[in-house]
Amino acid sequence: MDGEGWRFGPVRVAARPHPPGQRGEPAVRPLLAQWLGRDEVPLVRDAHGRPRLLAPFQDCDASWSHSGGLLLLACARGATVGVDLERLRPRPRALELARRFFAPGEAGRLAMLPPAQRERAFVRLWCAKEALLKAHGRGLAFGLHRLELACADDDPAAPLRLLACDPALGAPADWRLHEWTPQPDYVAVLAWRPAGG
């Protein structure tokens, strides 16, 4: 991380402290304005609630997420982006939630993990799914089961990759995922693909 944040492929990401329970949009507007060199940001929500930048920045995309006391903002030109952030905490119902909402293969792989690894693996999957669905523009309402992720060689320490997804999301190979720890006890996932992909 440099003084301003991170760069992953075409995507710029920044982390900022954020008061729990407050909306993220008021906090990201000033940073977006700074990045775009404007006093105000032409940001609106589409029919599904996804943020969209208007002219002259319609070739830019932005996404943000907050959890605990941290906020992430991702912005790219020429790419569609989604970011999700979760603070690690006990999730005793992780397997139950995975069986109910995730693809069957994901729930099965989580069930095979030792309990000590299961909660972090669940959060990684959740973040990746939410980042992908934010980028797609429909959010969680589209359905967490409509995309399936796995770690390479079923190694829970390996990076996640998109195995399959609903055709509305395009081809799995079009998407890029980047997982990282922006601060201790946090998991973040950034999803992006070329705009128009």
Automatic annotation (TrEMBL):
One term of GO molecular function: magnesium ion binding
All copies of domain 4'-phosphopantetheinyl transferase, residue ranges: 81-159
Record keywords, A-Z: Transferase
Residue segments, region Disordered: 1-26
Highest taxon, organism lineage: Bacteria
Entry GO terms, CC: cytosol
Family named by the database record: Belongs to the P-Pant transferase superfamily. Gsp/Sfp/HetI/AcpT family.
Protein name: 4-phosphopantetheinyl transferase
Organism the protein comes from: Pseudoxanthomonas taiwanensis
